[in-house]
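Entry for 2'-monophosphoadenosine-5'-diphosphate complex. Fields follow.
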Amino acid sequence: TARYAVFGQPIAHSLSPHIHTAFARQEGIAMEYEAIEASAAEFSAVLEAFAANGGMGANVTAPLKEVAFALCRTFTSRAKLAGSVNTLLRKGDSWHGDTTDGVGLVRDLTERHLLDLRGRRVLMLGAGGSARSVAPALLDAGILELMVVNRTSERADELVDAIGEPGRAKTRRWEDLHELGDFELIVNATSAGRDPTANFVLPMSLVNSMTTAVDLNYGEAAIAFLAWARAMNCRNRVDGLGMLVEQAASSFQQWHEVRPETDPVYAELRARHV
Ligand code: ATR
């Protein structure tokens, strides 16, 4: 059987093996999908051994997305823009890299939550790996404006420079959040929710009667931001569970050339997790 895996550190609690196994069962595809722990320093050797043992494809999660990018010989253009990959596909004797997080997010928002992103003003908090991997897809989805605000403003500037659409993708300083007006979509792409010591207070002025608040995390890590969104009466609050299932479906599609049904897997995880 063909071998697939997700790599990261930590990786024990990854939902990817469960999701991919469910997709494979649904499509009648025989494959093996495991979770393999690797540090950034080990990853090159671990991935090589995986390929030597029949590894055909892989997902990559924190903290390996940038390291994985450096190990690919070819990329999709969106992966090149993000400078990171979450999906590896074996092509001959080398790896081809893609990032499916952004399309996963857009699909979750537009098809599961039925949001129309076209013409929207979007605030993105954070400019790390997650932010970089979703920003281009939001722009591709036809939003009017993407305002990237990061605690460290240089990183936001870098992200926006890489996108290269100064008319639509802009940065502002974190200290100026209260002056930016309101947004129809606020995307939390920071890792603050994973830090119990983080003091994550955002101004109320960011929210209007239409605002959807999205956290790219799910579970515990999404609680703080989504609690703020609830307190601010945001119209919709969305965590990252749907994006997780949708990015997995896009990876699966590249490996197996069939798009799995995501709704049953999403519903089952939702029933278990939140
Ligand atoms: P990920 O892969 O999850 O994106 P990352 O690349 O380490 O992780 O990026 C983390 C992001 O969360 C960064 O934008 C970081 O801001 P800095 O660039 O200023 O470090 C942001 N972040 C982390 N903790 C935060 C906090 N307490 N308040 C605001 N932003 C925070």
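NOTE: The mean pLDDT is 96.
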